[in-house]
Amino acid sequence: MPRPTTRHLCTQCGHAEAKWHGQCPGCGAWNTLEPQRGAAPAAGPHRPAARAGSPRRLRDVEEVRLRRLSTGLAEVDRVLGGGLVPGSLVLLGGSPGIGKSTLTTMALAQLAAAGRRTLYVSAEESPAQVRLRAARLGSAALDIPILAETSLATVLATIEAERPEACVIDSVQTLHAEDGTGAPGSVGQVREVAGQVMRVAKSGDTAVLLVGHVTKEGALAGPRVLEHLVDCVLQFEGERERTYRTLRALKNRFGSVDDVGVFEMRDSGLVEVLDASARFVGEATRAPGSVVLAAMEGSRPLLVEVQALVSESELVPPRRVVSGIDRNRLALVLAVLARHAGVGVGAADVFVNVVGGVRVDEPGADLAVALAVAGAARGVPLSGPGGGPLACFGEIGLTGELRSVAHPDRRGAEAAKFGLTPLLDPERAATLRDAVRVAVPRPSAAPAAAA
Ligand code: TYD
Ligand code: MG
């Protein structure tokens, strides 16, 4: 007989300890370990006798054809890999106010209009508040049945009774599982809620969209611990004050994680931006400090404008302000610019911004950041072939070399669509010094200044 033991689980991070501690060794939180009774895992010769299973070759396993429910939003369907899969659990994460409720309401509205049974569970807002939002999104949204409820048991019973084909639960952190430990939103609760919702979703063939808030620090506070459990994790990003939003899959059991959807927040809801590059290139300025980056958003090429401002500073140390790129990456680019390309901005404030609230988290952005800063520092407008904006991409190495990045052909093809080729890339310049020499001549060396 295994001896019953008590484990102590942290309600914040899920860390398990044999003994109680005042401070969780996993996450450092205080007073979060709670005892959980259970049998010690059976070990060695005392293992109960079990019948052996019979493995089959994969070839002999029946194929299943995945049915898909179209959400009516092409960008969402694409990111999901073709639509919602019945019985699947999709986690939609994003910071508060980014538009998760708007996006899920729009998807349900389209599904309802297509004759699907839907259900919107709001554990955060009153029916009147949800109605107010839906009214902005068009009359189809007003046909969605809503349940405003925070009790998990009631929500599950409703799903079992109504058997919706698609259901939104907004949000996983505000539902309360009666038999779970901790306060709503704690790790124990969030796990319990997701586990029980999943059971009901699978048995009723309901596709469930679970909304989860991500804290400012980027930890999907509760939801991160759900990633292994759900079929698909979508991340909705952007800056609240800006209009552009991106939707990307971090995990997808039914499709790739390469696709990205781009949306614009308008007065009447989210609008899909099908040709985002055209938008960004059309808005690009030709002033010193502006350059077009041929970026990759997953498997999709996207042209975005990167802007930099370099200005004299009285502060020590001077300011380094970024939006849309990583701050440490800017520090690296500035160091290489100074050390290997002769552009020092040591005592100046440097601001770098990816226009439109887009975030580019890829090494290919380095060269664009460097050229924008160099152009701003020297006051030279960068112009590409035919006097249009200059487009570029490439990673910068610590020794000042330009390194190739993924999908140069797709980036090139996207730039060609807008007449921005040839691109300045690691093929055309081996080092950052070369790239700066070509794109950002010193003002004194420029013919105009010589006259
Ligand atoms: P919301 O979907 O409530 O965000 P979340 O559920 O992620 O917290 O909406 C966020 C913001 O979007 C809100 O501040 C108002 C704005 N908004 C629009 O600009 N247009 C619209 O049509 C709607 C519905 C919202
Ligand atoms: Mg919301």
Give me the secondary-structure topology.
Layout: E1 4-10, E2 16-17, E3 33-39, H1 74-80, E4 89-94, H2 100-113, E5 118-122, H3 127-136, E6 146-148, H4 152-162, E7 166-170, H5 187-204, E8 207-213, E9 232-238, E10 244-252, E11 260-266, E12 269-272, H6 276-283, E13 290-297, E14 300-312, E15 320-323, H7 327-340, E16 348-354, H8 366-378, E17 391-392, E18 395-396, E19 402-403, H9 408-417, H10 432-439, H11 447-450
The structure holds thymidine-5'-diphosphate and magnesium ion (MG).
Q: What is the strand content? A: 15-25%
How many DSSP-defined strands? 19
In terms of quaternary structure, the protein is single chain
What structural category arises from helix and sheet content?
alpha/beta
What value does the Rg take, in angstroms? 26 Å
What low-confidence regions span 5 or more consecutive residues with pLDDT below 50? Answer: none
Element order, helices and strands?
A: EEEHEHEHEHEHEEEEEHEEEHEHEEEHHH
* N-end to C-end Cα span: 95 Å
Name the hetero compounds present.
thymidine-5'-diphosphate, magnesium ion
Largest sheet, spatial ordering of strands: 6-5-7-8-4-9-10-11-12
Globally, the shape reads: globular
Proportion of residues in helical segments? 25-40%
| Biggest sheet character | 9 strands, mixed
**Separate helix tally:** 11
Give the overall pLDDT as a whole number. 87
